[in-house]
Amino acid sequence: MNIYEFFNTIADKLYPFGGQIAYDARIIECRINYGYEFYCKDLFYYREISHLLGAILAFGIYLLIKKYVSKRSAVISIICFTFYLLFQELYLHPNFGGQLLFKSLTDLAVFLIPLWFSIFYEIKIKKVISHFVRLHKLFVSFLKSDVASLCGGLIDFSVLTLAVLVLKLPVEISIIAGVSMGGITYFTIANFWAFKDTKRSLGAESWRFLIIWFASLVFNTLGTTLLYSLGLNILISRILTSLLVSLFWNFPLNRFWVFPPK
């Protein structure tokens, strides 16, 4: 008997009505009468209780690893065990033991839900929730910043198009004019709506924003000019550059340096 068979048949050997022999006999009886052993309620409930006890045992092992090894090792162990359990219940048992899908899903639910609930509770689920709340607030501010950027971008692109196609100004001057008007639009919307929870005064925000805006102007000008020189359409070049600068420069620095939350 290999290790897998040993652990997989522990519940069979501990069957309270006669051990392994009685358990096997009951399985045969249920198969004859119902076609599937776990249609017998007594066997079904017994196996699910054994899975629940297994979840308690796994949680105890998690606590021991966390205490005597490390928290990271404990979490990694439980994650690996979870993947193994999924493999066992969704592949091994159905393909080599004839287990029905409803039984596999029930086993997983009875084992994993209490186990992971206990782990999340043990690591203070309130902290996890607070992290999600912070991420949610950050995501909302990111969306608002995108709206402000979109408004600024519309002004930017409008001025750029007017300057290049109507006024026939050089590309560099047109870009500077567009970014300038777009920056003013963005700052106004960001200050009074997107990042209105900021703790800085308007004056402190202004000079910081000018630094970010000037760097953004340089990045946008160089990026757009480069892409345009490579043969891309001027508007496509401007849009691609604006997206990259907004994602990796404007939003992070505006949120955490120019308009930091209270």
Overview of the molecule:
This protein has 262 residues and is mainly alpha-helical. The chain has 2 domains: 121 residues, no CATH class; 128 residues, no CATH class. 85% of the residues lie in helices and 0% in strands. The chain is built from 10 helices and no strands. Helix 4 packs antiparallel against helix 5, helix 8 packs antiparallel against helix 9 and helix 9 packs antiparallel against helix 10. The chain is elongated and about 95 Å long. The chain starts with a helix and ends with a helix. Its main location: membrane. It is found in: Membrane.
In short:
Helices cover 85% and strands 0% of the residues. By secondary structure, it is mainly alpha-helical.
Structural class: mainly alpha
Q: In this structure, how is the largest beta sheet organized?
A: none
- Strand tally: 0
Average predicted confidence as pLDDT: 80
Gyration radius (Cα, Å) is 31 Å
> Strand content of the residues, in percent?
under 5%
Question: Into how many domains do the coordinates divide?
Answer: 2
Q: Return residue spans where pLDDT drops below 50 for at least 5 consecutive residues.
A: none
Please name the defining characteristics of this protein.
10 helices, mainly alpha, 2 domains, 262 residues
